[in-house]
Description:
By secondary structure, this protein is an alpha+beta fold.
Amino acid sequence: MPAHTAKARAGANIALVKYWGKRDARLNLPAAGSISITLSGLETNTRLHALHEGADTDELVVNGQCLPVDRVGAVLDLTRKLAGGGPFFRVDSDNNFPTGAGLASSASGFAALVTAADQVLGLGLSKSRLSELARRGSGSAARSIFGGFVEMKPGNIDDGRDAVAEPLANCEHWPLKVVVAITATEAKSVSSTDGMNRTMQTSPYYPTWVATVAADLELARRAILERDFELLADVSESSALKMHASALAASPGLLYWNPATLACMHAVRELRAVGCGVFFTVDAGPQVKAVCLPGACAQVADRLADIPGVARILICGLGPGAEVVV
Ligand code: PMV
């Protein structure tokens, strides 16, 4: 029975084996798979409120600020189509992590959006269908539907039905921690979509990058299932560095790092060399995410906080998938 309003929450996620490139830009189909961890502590809460009958568009408010409805409206259109119609909505979305900190909110945002839309329209979709819908908003959002360790399948059907995420292991399987070092607070220079497109169109390394992902997925899957931290560290750092290498070789080259990003990466490597359980990953921006064994978290946070240029440290654990909040 369709309701008038619904609320959902979802956590951000960080890829250990990166997604960088699309096989179909319109449907947001990834060129290769990816593996991520869903985080606790960095989350989006989204409330949908049905607008009165005369309304002719959705409305979007993020952290109290009205924004163009763009992709949010397009994803809501897809859910209304599945429901055979439905009202326009006011979407009130709040991120509990610092805005302008360069942490992608699109993954948690679209995962929370489709979960709330499913509830308010009474669709009762499976997690897999929700993942497919979230993917239409942002490729990485497909993964935030699930908690813990998650794998995104690239699929091979043209309509994208099989390009969905699935759970690999839950949070309790291996309660890793993530220390996020914020090294710049201004908005990032090139969005992931633009960066991916430029890499696909101009980087001579792009085909090689795509060709290596399947082997990395295999290693990461094994490392997670066997809780082999060294293996996960090696494959994750390698995947991040290869993604950035392909982007650096685009024309013009995409340089997402600043001096503090690099200093954090070196510090993480130095810590690991002396036996501390930590590795780094970096996305389409300058922030460094240091993934650690639970016992290493305090030492890693202290070390990264001391690096000149690190403005702030956030500490997260692994969290659940997107869910309706009552
Ligand atoms: O979901 P998008 O379109 O913002 O792309 C995410 C790209 C990376 O964050 C760099 C990698 C990933 O797999 O999350």
